[in-house]
């Protein structure tokens, strides 16, 4: 039987709300960096490997080669759809910020070439990038929730891709088409440099980006019991996230970095690229650690029991509860990573009593990821990146970025709920 609501629960909720209020004030008003305001095991290693892979893919021109292949000789009406596809492919191994920097010159060049409003191209690109960031490992948010809830990575990856496709379509080409009629933006503040596409094999470029995803999916295939034991064991090892990303970085270094017949970056430049790729993730890793510390304070204070009491009292489905907690934390902290880390940590102690199937645990991860991107506003770094890159006013940025992410969040919850019902 669920214990009655106590004065301690009330004080705990009020203290939690007060602490979140302090965080909002520090980040949103006083502009304190999230790490200081909130004051790593395999996750840190995975993020570092992902940064190395993203750096090699970007600097070598493989990312630009894929974008060029997708959009070349395309009718203007199809460009928003293909840009969304290209952004999703590019976004598989890259952080949102890196993917956005890659896509910016492409967005403006394509809009000018096709004679389309910039937002018809920009919104699909933003949707493709942010959907992958929220719902598909090996991005930090999903990986953190997977680790905390002991979810199966392959299942989460497969379900995440299924949900990401309709989310990117509705938040991208569909919303972008409607928005372009109401929001008109001026020329780019800084003239974009021409999009250079090195002489790079398209097949190789795609292979490098998709290799870690393929290896991780192999691990799930190995666990189905349909393969010979030696093969299954081998796939299980190579599909482990750290191993899969290590192999992928090595493959990218050999093919895109060193290359053959002087087609690669060269050993010196490849080494510099990898070193430079690690610097931007320092703040991310500190933020993840701080978010974990904040989560632990709440857990020690008994917030998990209180959350369980709220869930039992309202009879709220656990999937909706996970999404809602992530929404509230994202509004408070401005960080999807902190919202995901804290929500997953709060819900982890509840899972043994819920007797959830592996499919449902994977979908719970995705519900948290969806909630972590709901209506991102002025305390979100991505909000200001979008505003500055596209020279938007504050209201325009809310329409372009905040509403776009809300669409991704709601579709993500709806998709997870549908798959929850279908998987029984």
UniProtKB/TrEMBL annotation:
One Gene Ontology molecular-function label: gluconate transmembrane transporter activity
One Pfam family in the UniProt entry: GntP_permease
Keyword set, alphabetical order: Cell membrane, Membrane, Transmembrane, Transmembrane helix, Transport
TM spans (from-to): 12-30, 37-58, 78-111, 156-180, 201-222, 242-260, 281-303, 309-329, 336-355, 361-386, 398-422
Major localization class: membrane
Coiled coil: none
CC annotations in GO: plasma membrane
Membrane-topology descriptor: Multi-pass membrane protein
UniProt subcellular location: Cell membrane
Keyword presence, Electron transport: no
Family: Belongs to the GntP permease family.
Protein name per its UniProtKB record: Gluconate transporter
């Amino acid at each position: 039987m669920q214990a009655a609501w106590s004065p301690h629960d009330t004080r705990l909720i009020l203290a939690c709300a007060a602490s979140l209020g302090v965080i909002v004030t520090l980040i949103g008003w006083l502009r304190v960096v999230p790490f200081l305001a909130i004051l790593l095991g395999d996750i840190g290693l995975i993020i570092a490997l992902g940064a190395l892979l993203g750096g090699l893919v970007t600097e070598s021109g493989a990312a630009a080669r894929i974008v060029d292949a997708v959009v070349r000789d395309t009718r203007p009406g199809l460009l928003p759809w293909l840009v969304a596809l290209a952004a999703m492919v590019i976004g598989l191994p890259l952080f949102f910020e890196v993917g956005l920097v890659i896509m910016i010159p492409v967005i403006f060049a394509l809009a000018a070439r096709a004679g389309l409003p910039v937002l018809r191209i920009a919104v699909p690109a933003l949707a493709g990038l942010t959907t992958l960031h929220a719902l598909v490992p090996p991005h930090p948010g999903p990986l953190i929730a997977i680790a905390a809830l002991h979810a199966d990575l392959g299942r989460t990856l497969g379900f995440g891709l299924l949900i990401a496709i309709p989310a990117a379509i509705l938040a991208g080409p569909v919303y972008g088409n409607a928005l372009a009629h109401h929001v008109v933006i001026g020329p780019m503040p800084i003239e974009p440099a021409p999009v250079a596409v090195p002489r790079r094999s398209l097949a190789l470029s795609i292979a490098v980006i998709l290799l870690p995803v393929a290896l991780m999916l192999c691990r799930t295939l190995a666990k189905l019991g349909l393969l010979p034991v030696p093969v299954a064991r081998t796939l299980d090892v190579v599909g482990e996230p750290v191993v899969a990303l290590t192999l992928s970085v090595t493959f990218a270094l050999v093919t895109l970095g060193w290359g053959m017949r002087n087609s690669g970056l060269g050993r010196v430049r490849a080494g510099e690229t990898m070193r430079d790729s690690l610097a931007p993730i320092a703040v991310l890793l500190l933020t993840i650690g701080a978010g974990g510390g904040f989560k632990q304070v709440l857990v020690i204070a008994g917030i998990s029991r209180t959350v369980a009491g709220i869930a039992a009292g309202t009879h709220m489905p656990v999937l909706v509860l996970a999404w809602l907690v992530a929404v509230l934390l994202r509004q408070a902290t401005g960080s999807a990573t902190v919202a995901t880390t804290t929500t997953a940590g709060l819900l982890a102690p509840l899972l043994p009593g819920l007797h959830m199937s592996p499919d449902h645990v994977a979908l719970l991860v995705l519900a948290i990821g969806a909630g972590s991107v709901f209506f991102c506003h002025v305390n979100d770094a991505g909000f200001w990146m979008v505003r500055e890159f596209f020279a938007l006013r504050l209201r325009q940025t809310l329409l372009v970025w905040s509403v776009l992410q809300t669409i991704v969040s709601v579709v993500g919850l709806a998709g997870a709920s549908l798959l929850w019902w279908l998987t029984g």
